[in-house]
Specification:
By secondary structure, the protein is of the alpha+beta class. It contains ten helices and twelve strands.
Length: about 270
């Protein structure tokens, strides 16, 4: 069987986590209950296998990939439970899963028979302070005005679209204000571009960048808010993380522009409900 754990029980899956899992900010932010997510297991008392779903982005599988008590139910559970949860919570019709290794790759192909798995790659970038410092100098004379993303801005009806964005990652505005932060560019008190903490675990912050209107892109707004965000990280001893998919050329270019370097590529599958 597959059951959903209560958030107060998430720590039960800790023995299933590898050292690599424990370095994954998105994954660990869900386990810690900091960000919006769900965890599903085979046995709520002594789990052997788990799916950790970072609802805004991706699902991770940990534990025994040959556990029939979990694997044989995964296909139907996706259709009966996860599909509706995704629609209800973020309006999502596509689902992305991380492929931890060859064993999980084989298992996912065998288990998810109702779905056409589309192979892709996630790119993980590492922040390098020295490179960032050099690139930051070129931004020093920018005339773009940057504003901290605060509760007043988020509660302004004109910025509902930003709040909707945040709500995919955070359980409440209060949680975001307590654990995360962000910077934005305004035009007539409306957010044009923003960089905010998507997932947070320890001193690690997995950032998100948005420039909402097509006509405002390619004007340096994304770089401006990202550099402001990174300035905050450097001042406060935080470690920024950047993850994107292989097809997001704009995100890859911005990561390189702001002092990140490609650390590793990992296989993912996407499928439509």
């Amino acid at each position: 069987m597959i059951v959903e754990l209560d958030v107060n029980e998430y720590s039960k899956i800790t023995p299933l986590l590898s050292e690599e899992d424990k370095a994954n900010v998105a994954l660990m932010s869900i386990v810690a209950g900091s960000n919006k997510g769900k965890i599903f297991v085979d046995d709520p008392e002594r789990p052997r296998t788990a799916m950790i779903w970072a609802i805004a982005s991706i699902a991770f599988f940990v534990g025994d990939c040959r556990n029939s008590e979990f694997i044989t139910h995964l296909n139907s559970y996706m259709d009966q439970k996860i599909k509706q949860d995704s629609l209800d919570m973020i309006g999502g019709t596509w689902f992305t899963v991380a492929v931890a290794d060859e064993a999980w790759d084989e298992t996912l192909n065998e288990a998810l028979t109702d779905y056409e798995l589309v192979e892709g790659e996630d790119l993980e970038f590492e922040f390098t302070t020295d490179r960032y410092s050099k690139l930051r100098l070129a931004q020093a004379e920018s005339r773009i005005q940057i504003t901290p993303l605060d509760a007043d801005l988020l509660n302004d009806p004109a910025n509902n679209f930003v709040l909707e964005d945040l709500s995919e990652f955070w359980n409440s505005t209060g949680d975001f204000m307590d654990k995360g932060f962000g910077y934005c560019v305004l035009k007539d008190k409306t957010v044009q571009s923003v960089c905010f903490s998507g997932y947070v675990y320890g001193n690690g912050h997995d950032l998100v960048v948005r420039t909402y209107e097509e006509e405002e892109r390619q004007k340096g707004l994304g770089a401006a808010v990202t550099f402001a965000y990174l300035d905050h990280c450097v001042r406060n001893g935080l470690v920024p993380h950047w993850t994107t998919d292989e097809e997001n050329e704009a995100s890859i270019a911005l990561a390189n522009k702001c002092g990140f370097v490609l650390k590793e590529k990992s296989k993912v599958y996407e499928f439509e409900f």
